Amino acid sequence: MEEFSPNKANRFKVLTVLAIAASLSLGAYMYSAKEVTLELDGNEREVTTYAETVEDLLHEEEILLDKLAYVSVPLDTKLENNMKIIIKTPKLYTLAIGNDMVEVKSIYTKVRDVLNDLNVHLGDLDYTEPALDEKLSYGDKISITRVEEVIEEIEEVIAHDSIVQKSNKLDIGTSKVIQEGKDGVKIKKIKNVFENGKLVQEILVGEEVQKEAIPKIIEKGTRSVAKTTRGNVRYKKVLTMTATAYDNSYESTGKYPGDKYWGLTAMGTKARVGAVAVDPRVIPLGTKLYVESLDGTKDYGFCVAEDTGGAIKGNKIDLFFNTASEVRRFGRRKVKVYILD
Q1: Backbone phi and psi for residue 249, each to the nearest 5 degrees, phi listed first
Q2: Would you list the domain boundaries of the chain?
């Protein structure tokens, strides 16, 4: 048997110590490995790593970070076992405000969150497309419509009316202005709605009358007027009658001069040109008349119903003349009798 020399014993001791040190070093190394959860844009995976810091781990996993990326812990944080690291990479979107468009990046996917991240503020009336609570996909477009409401006051003329009133104090065909008309004024409040500077709607929100309109009042004549050879005559009624003639002769009146009531009318007035006999049931005695010829001869003219006659019944009139020859010449004819106003 070989003798175990002191040199060999010393060499064995050294090897033993080295073996133990190596074993302890390997155990410590194995003990330093950590289980870490990586969540990248919502996707999770478990990683076993010997990296010291979060930044070392990302390099180890070849994860390149955009400058706008979100990491849930600082990059120089020491890794711990069972640590969870959340990473959100920015997404590219198009932001349109009116006619201006720009490409933007944000780690968020909801419209509201993206705008907050970009410090884009909305007015009370502004709106977006998609809506604020909608989720976006990579490359989506966010359109912002700026809405402005402007109240405008407009002065508007209120046209005056024209009122026509009938008047029996004026002749037919004539009129008289008894009150001049004046236009009024009202203020209309209009809400103008602008979207991205363009007028899209006008809404009437109120109106106020500042000055009332005054109507023009016109009186229009209703009094009948006839154009005759003696000028215009105003009348209430017109009749077409059969006219005869009479004088003071016995043939006309049945009386001789000196007889009672000779030369007098039924009203006791003197029989004369301009005094005519009528049926009082048709034309009351005392009525002023105008007798117009219908055959082109001279009108008998203005007269008064003062007399009656046994043969003058109904739609007949008897005209007084001074002589029998005039009576004969007149004979019997149709006339138009105006009952004067």
Answers
A1: -70, 160
A2: 34-88, 91-145, 150-220, 229-340
Q: pTM of this prediction? A: 0.51
Q: Which helix (H) or strand (E) holds 327?
A: helix 324-330
Residue 73: exposure state from Cβ atoms within 10 A (0-12, 13-18, ≥19):
middle
Mean predicted confidence (pLDDT) in 52-75: 92
| Contact present, 328 and 288 (Cβ < 8 Å) | no
What whole-number percentage of the chain has pLDDT above 70? 91
SS3 category, 170 = strand
Using the predicted structure, report yes or no on whether residue 19 has a pLDDT greater than 80: no
Helix boundaries (H) for 199-278: 250-253
**Does residue 281 have a pLDDT over 70?**
yes
Query: Are the folds of 34-88 and 91-145 the same?
Result: yes
Tell me the per-residue pLDDT of 300-324, one tens digit each, with 9 for 90 and over. Answer: 999 999 999 999 999 999 999 999 9
Identify the CATH homologous superfamily for domain 150-220: Resuscitation-promoting factor rpfb. (2.20.230.10)
Token output for 236: 């209430």
In this structure, whether the domain defined by 229-340 belongs to CATH 2.60.120.20 is answered with no
How many CA atoms lie within 13 Å of 106's alpha carbon, on the beta-carbon side? Answer: 25
| pLDDT tens per residue across span 215-238 | 999 999 887 777 777 778 888 899
At the top level of CATH, the class of 91-145 is alpha beta
Q: Judge: domain 34-88, CATH 3.10.20.90.
A: yes
**Rg of the chain's alpha carbons, rounded to an integer?**
61
Q: What does the block give as tokens for 151?
A: 């109240």
